[in-house]
Amino acid sequence: MAIYVENGLTKLVNGKPLKSISYYWRKKIAEYQSTLSKYGLETSRRLRRMYMKWRRQIRHYINTKVREAMEWLYDIGVSTVKVGYPRYIALKSGNFDNVHAWTYGLLLRRLSEAAEEYGIRVIYVDKSYTSSRCPWHSDGCGIRISRGLFKCTTMNKVFNADLIAAYNILMMPVTPSPGRGGGNGRRPGQGLNPQKEGCSPNLPTPSRGGGRQLFPNIPPYPPALAPLMQS
To answer: What is the band of 8 on the pLDDT scale with cuts at 50, 70, 90?
Structure first.
């Protein structure tokens, strides 16, 4: 999970532990089911407990990370977040990495519940192609060179694909609801605190000036993200 704030702060949430938990329990369950089948059994109390522990560990990790993310957003003054919704993900290949490990339904539900506790508004948008669209040159520029990296072919630079997706989701237009303040995504009276945890990524900062310019001149690349770039 990647977070991109309109002032350039970012936060990455590690999702690998979710896959590790699921791979562990899939292996344990498969071994035990093989033992059960030798005795002509399909289920048992122990097997149900194993599934329960699997779900409990997944739920605990998601709950913890979602609350940490929402608390961070609240501390820096954010009042509205856009969440990329993986529409039709369960109708695709049924791949374990895409569907089971991430448990998207639980993740989206916890995001909504935690955001409500902090008074943060959640807007769901379709995340299709957001991680493969160049923020500077739009469609026709850029390729995914691996699962977690995106390359801008015009500049010949490599970026974190999740941050690219988070930025593109942030820039998606949304029709404002009547009577809802904080159109710039901040709580009224709150400023963004750049000293909080986060960093300025090598992505453009949305322009707040006149006109429709969304991608101003490319800023200097921070040293922290230099290993992601290729000359």
So the answer is: confident
Measured in degrees and rounded to the nearest 5, phi and psi for residue 18 equal -60, -45
Residue 94 pLDDT exceeds 60 = no
Tokens at residue 5, please? 């704030």
pLDDT at 220: 39
Closest CA to 165 of 225, 108, 59, 84: 84
From 185, 130, 142, select the one nearest 5 (Cα to Cα): 185
- Per-residue model confidence as pLDDT tens digits over 126-151: 888 888 888 888 777 888 887 788 88
